[in-house]
Design a protein that fits this description.
Pfam families: Polyketide_cyc2 (PF10604). The protein is α+β, with helices and mostly antiparallel strands. The protein has helices spanning about 15-20, 25-30, 120-145; strands at about 1-10, 35-40, 50-55, 60-70, 75-80, 90-100, 105-115.
Length: about 140
């Protein structure tokens, strides 16, 4: 298994950041430059474990299933729904927001997955730098408005 990790600090408190990212269907709201549309399938609620979000990232449609959501821990985990948009398997991502003592917040985004061993370095870097980093920069911009 491989692991990709990204973290950042937001000027806003953890409750404020969590209120935005908690919405499993909210990508198109705060990452609108990359995500043109998002919907939850089958009439489920966006915070219901098992909910599947389908969103457009560029020309691709990506489907992800919510596996866990904890308001106490300010975290959620999700997996890709077949077919996966990338050549990886057993992909499980977790986003967590933690308070920082000075009133800011610390956000961690990580994923574990498996793939062809020769491509592990590529995908480990890709998820951190091409997915999580631009998403969190967009979130920072959204929160600063």
């Amino acid at each position: 298994m491989a692991r990709s990790y990204y973290s950042t600090v937001f000027e806003q408190d953890a409750a404020t950041v969590w209120a935005v990212v908690r919405d499993f269907n909210g990508l198109a709201t705060w990452w609108s430059a990359a995500v043109s549309e998002s919907r939850i399938e089958d009439g489920k609620a966006a915070d219901q474990v098992g909910a599947v979000r389908a969103f457009k990232l560029g020309e691709s449609t990506i489907r992800e299933r919510l596996l866990a959501l904890s308001d106490l821990d300010r975290s959620y985990s999700y997996e890709f729904v077949d077919p996966a948009p990338f050549p990886v398997v057993d992909y499980v991502a977790t986003l967590r927001v933690t308070p920082v003592s000075d009133g800011r917040s610390f956000l961690e985004y990580s994923v574990v997955f498996d793939c062809n061993e020769a491509e592990r370095g590529h995908w480990t870097s890709f998820f951190a730098t091409q997915v999580f980093d631009p998403a969190m920069k967009a979130l920072s911009e959204y929160l600063s408005q």
